[in-house]
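for the writeup, i need someone to sanity check this before i put it in the appendix. the sequnce is what the collaborator sent (i think, or maybe the updated version? ugh). structure was predicted straight from it, no edits. if anything looks off just tell me and ill rerun, i have time this weekend
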Amino acid sequence: MYQRILIPLEHSAYDAGILDHVRQLAQLCGASMVLIHVADGWAARNAQQLALRESEEMARDRAYLEETCARLRAEGFSADAVLAAGDPAAEICAAAERERCDLIAMATHGHKGLQDLIYGATANSVRHRTMVPVLMVRGPAPGSVTAEGVA
């Protein structure tokens, strides 16, 4: 069914929920995973244009991606990591194409009303911009226990 799954990570407790879900899907399909985090701070958005070196935030994000990827590999999964910078929705869509992913699996927060407009913008934008199928999994409630630990 799916061969390569792109998983945008936030470097937050919501990552555990989407990773729990995608582990099962990847195992069922024999799919590889591509983890992506899009750094969107000022330094990240302007690093190339201004020839800035990697910020501390980006270095932490890179380490987080690499550690998460290493854990998945130790569990027997095929996994790669991509650290991008800029507009999250645009970078996620571009990575899905570039990495030849046939599914994007994202965690959602389950906000309502105004919060959904503010915090749901990335997931909503991704689903409107890409032709790659998008699976949205509602993240665990804060304080719940997942395979990755407490959310």
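The mean pLDDT is 83. The domain at 4-145 is CATH 3.40.50.620 (Rossmann fold).
thx in advance!!
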